[in-house]
Specification:
The chain is of the alpha+beta class. It has a domain of 39 residues: 3-Layer(aba) Sandwich (YefM-like fold). Helix content is 36%, strand content 20%. It is built from three helices and three strands; from the N terminus they run βααββα. A three-stranded mixed beta sheet has the order 1-2-3. The longest helix is centred in the middle third of the chain and has 12 residues. It starts with a strand and ends in a 21-residue tail after the last helix.
């Protein structure tokens, strides 16, 4: 993450937006204190794919149709 003051951001906005497009986060300061952050927009499908990748290897896919041998009482 890079930090930039408001004046520098105004003067070089296209440059900083290009860095955000490249995936970097920009913290905006005023009088030495962070007042805002510009973060890259994330596509919801990309977030879903990332969540699925994190689950890969920890989940198993099994046969949900074949009987398991367990007794079943549908009236419960």
């Amino acid at each position: 993450m890079i930090t930039v003051n408001v004046t520098a951001l105004r003067n070089r906005l296209p440059e900083y937006l290009g860095r955000v497009r490249a995936g970097e986060e920009v913290a905006i300061t005023s009088r030495g204190r962070v007042v805002a952050r510009i973060v890259p927009d994330t596509d919801s499908s990309a977030r879903a794919q990332q969540a699925l990748k994190s689950l890969r290897g920890s989940c198993t896919i099994g046969d949900v149709v074949s009987p398991t041998g367990e007794p079943w009482d549908a009236d419960r």
